[in-house]
């Protein structure tokens, strides 16, 4: 859906930043399912990267006295993407500070330079340049600012249009009435209430492509079964085969397809799979 | 943090709603004479940009400035967006940002 190419992952503190940016290419509701060893956590949504305008940040309610908690559209926000013009760049020994003006407002941004790659990245951007900033939203004594994880110059100006459209899209997703929101996830869950007759295999051709969506839906319904969703490590292909009694090659192709689409991901090893849908 | 002087995303049609206020738009440069640029807005109207910087003809130019009328902007900052820019997408964004989703921008 979204070209996650904005972050090229050249940063430090690898393990942590990976989980922060892992969700960059998805809608927040999906990115909450980034594999984590901590299991189900209500705080996951805070790790989703939210594209925002400065105006939205200004309007954000401070969730509590805790300096790092903000809520926008009812979602806890900590990692944000902003796109705007760099102003007032000040280079210091260990960090670079500047003001980002995205046309809706201005916000202070700070970029710590821990590694030479950080310094190099910051040398590439100057006052007046359009930049894409990914970073953590912080609040201190009522003043909000961003601690940037990456600051990159915009080279394709369509990225600016795209960013604002992405802001609107995500805002729409998050403000959509609950009933509609649930419909998305409810549909597959209804499907898995259906018991699968064991003779179903006979009705499917050997090719997953020819069998089309029916096989795909059946396989996904196994992954979306509440008991499977609850399993931290997901299930193996053998489990799916056992449930559906479908030909192995068909199921393998379907799983492979959904892995490529990002609907299913590997957990502890190459043989365990879990749905990316928010449990 | 300061949101006291936002610039409204506009095309020519929406420009008229913001006369006297800060706006930002993108035009395709048609001709440039002594700091005055005549450009085509993303919704296909001619706009006059005063105090504009020199941007090659046919390039897209982003303008931040004050709307002087429904056809003219006094530029504060100009950016050369190059020869290829998706004007249609920008036009759609202007409509959304000035109407239904105005609260996210202004």
TrEMBL record, chain B:
One of its GO terms (cellular component) is nuclear lumen. GO terms for molecular function: DNA binding. The keyword Translocase does not apply. The keyword RNA-binding does not apply. GO terms for biological process: DNA recombination; DNA repair; DNA replication. Keywords: Nucleus. InterPro entries: NA-bd_OB-fold, Rfa2. Its main location: nucleus. Transmembrane segments: none annotated. CDD domains: RPA3 (cd04479). It is found in: Nucleus. Belongs to the replication factor A protein 3 family. This is Replication factor A protein 3. It comes from Paspalum vaginatum.
């Amino acid at each position: 859906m979204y070209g996650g190419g904005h972050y090229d992952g050249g940063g430090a503190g690898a393990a942590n930043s990976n989980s922060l940016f892992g969700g960059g290419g998805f809608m927040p509701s999906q990115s909450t399912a980034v594999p984590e060893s901590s299991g189900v956590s209500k705080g996951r949504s805070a790790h989703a990267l939210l594209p925002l305008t400065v105006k939205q940040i200004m309007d954000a309610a401070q969730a509590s006295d805790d300096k790092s908690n903000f809520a926008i559209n009812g979602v806890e926000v900590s990692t944000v993407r902003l796109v705007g013009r760099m102003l007032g760049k000040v280079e210091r020994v260990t960090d670079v500070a500047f003001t980002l003006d995205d046309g809706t407002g201005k916000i202070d941004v700070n970029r710590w330079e821990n590694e030479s790659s950080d310094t190099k990245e910051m040398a590439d951007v100057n006052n007046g340049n359009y930049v894409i900033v990914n970073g953590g939203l912080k609040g201190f004594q009522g003043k909000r600012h961003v601690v940037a994880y990456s600051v990159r110059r915009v080279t394709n100006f369509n990225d600016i249009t795209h960013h604002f459209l992405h802001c609107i899209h995500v805002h729409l997703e998050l403000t959509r009435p609950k009933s509609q929101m649930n419909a998305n996830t409810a549909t597959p869950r209804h499907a898995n209430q259906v018991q699968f007759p064991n003779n179903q295999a006979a009705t499917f051709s050997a090719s997953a492509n020819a069998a089309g969506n029916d096989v795909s839906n059946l396989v996904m319904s196994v992954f979306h079964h509440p008991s499977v969703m609850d399993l931290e490590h997901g299930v193996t292909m053998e489990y799916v085969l056992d449930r559906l009694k479908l030909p192995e090659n068909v199921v393998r192709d379907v799983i492979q397809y959904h892995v490529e689409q990002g609907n299913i991901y590997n957990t502890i090893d190459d043989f365990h799979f879990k749905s990316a849908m928010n449990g | 943090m300061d949101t006291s002087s936002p610039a409204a995303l506009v095309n020519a049609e929406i420009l008229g709603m913001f006369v006297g206020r800060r706006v930002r738009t993108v035009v395709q440069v048609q001709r440039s004479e002594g700091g005055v640029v005549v450009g085509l807005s993303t919704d296909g109207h001619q706009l006059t940009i005063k105090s504009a910087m020199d941007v090659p003809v046919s390039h897209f130019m982003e303008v931040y400035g004050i709307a002087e009328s429904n056809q003219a902007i006094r530029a504060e900052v100009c950016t050369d967006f190059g020869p290829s820019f998706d004007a249609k997408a920008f036009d759609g964004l202007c409509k959304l940002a000035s109407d239904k989703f105005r609260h996210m921008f202004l």
